Amino acid sequence: MVRAAVLIVFLLSFAGHGCSQRYNAIYSFGDSISDTGNLCAGSGGCPSWDNTGKPPYGNTHFGRPTGRCTDGRVVVDFLAERFGLPLLPPSKASGGDFKKGANMAIIGATAMDFDFFKSRGLGASVWNDGSLGTQIQWFQQLMPSICGTGCKSYFSNSLFIVGEFGGNDYNAALFTPGKGMAEARSYVPQVVDRITTGVETLIGLGAVDVVVPGVLPIGCFPVYLTLYPSSNKDDYDEIGCLRSFNSLSSYHNELLKQALSGLRSKHAGVRLMYADFYAQVTDMVRSPETFGLEYGLRVCCGAGGEGPYNYNNGANCGTAGASACGDPEKYLAWDGVHLTDAAYGSIAGGWLDGTYCSPGILH
């Protein structure tokens, strides 16, 4: 835990200091953990059902909703700031300049394509066509405006963030009546294979420095803790998280690390970095104060103090009946599914200095 404490000092020195690594751009792929506004970038703005387009989303840092699923910035925003780059525009933003970065991530994204879920009777639980394969297509459509015919050279000096992917793939089974954990576990290898294939595609396009995050410890998230409570104390680990859900996350992450090891042996000139969301978030739950926080499992924007986690699936953040805390900088969890600006800032620090990324981005 002493190593983790260094993150606080590290974050205070984000601005104004030189670093050992420079990038001309950052290109990001993922889901709601890293979306910077793609769902809301269309001509109609945010869909009416999308609460992230309503206050108090965005209030801490931007003073308004931006389509990010948090009170402020996400990890890729902090990385862009660290390297002196503009915040990544969503790739769907009309008239955007993507030479210094673009974010293909979109809320609800999966690794697998829609047909995969449809074939398993899970199509009703997947509402977004922004799978990893689709996001790579979006990126390829942007390439001529970014780098013309010199993309391999340009991308060799860019940072790529691929994920996390997998959370929504597993939610499709976990939130479908009659399916559940066994179904989700059965296709983990296919999800990891799809992520690996996506990474290889980007390497083929010229990516050299690639961060691939694992999935988060979903058993520590208030939405699962509230929807799947247990009267059996053995179903919870020592920090109050659901063992079976975290076991699913761990299974995914172990297979992903093995796959990345294989990719490293195939692509000797490529820097593949595994970002350990799981280890850092569990450490933040176990010892929030080490990261400058006070609350690990309790939601900031939630149901007015209801239950042990301040979460009610019928009164989600941004809707009537929900309210935000006045001190989000003390919370790990923002809305029960996503983290706070403060938490994402700490996570970015752990990726940069290598505490929770192997190797660290700055190493």
UniProtKB/TrEMBL annotation:
<dbReference type="InterPro" id="IPR036514">
    <property type="entry name" value="SGNH_hydro_sf"/>
</dbReference>
<keyword id="KW-0732">Signal</keyword>
<dbReference type="InterPro" id="IPR001087">
    <property type="entry name" value="GDSL"/>
</dbReference>
<dbReference type="GO" id="GO:0016788">
    <property type="term" value="F:hydrolase activity, acting on ester bonds"/>
</dbReference>
<dbReference type="InterPro" id="IPR035669">
    <property type="entry name" value="SGNH_plant_lipase-like"/>
</dbReference>
<comment type="similarity">
    <text>Belongs to the 'GDSL' lipolytic enzyme family.</text>
</comment>
<keyword id="KW-0325">Glycoprotein</keyword>
<feature type="signal peptide">
    <location>
        <begin position="1"/>
        <end position="20"/>
    </location>
</feature>
<protein>
    <recommendedName>
        <fullName>Esterase</fullName>
    </recommendedName>
</protein>
<dbReference type="Pfam" id="PF00657">
    <property type="entry name" value="Lipase_GDSL"/>
</dbReference>
<keyword id="KW-0378">Hydrolase</keyword>
